[in-house]
Amino acid sequence: MDKNEKSKPSYNQDIIKIIQARYGYSQDYIRKSIRGDRTGIICIMIKDEYIRLNNEALKVIESQLYKL
Question: CA nearest 8: which of 46, 26, 34, 38?
Fold first, then answer.
């Protein structure tokens, strides 16, 4: 029998820690909010903030790559 293995999404742990410090929710709740398992106004705010911070982090990494 083959096992159907789903790959876990990889989230930026530094950004999750920043959001945790800002809102005070657990990392598990934040990951579930980002994934869409939780609904509500706060969950939408957390998801939007994660996406915004992650995009900014990727831009900084990309700009540093071009400097090398």
Answer: 34
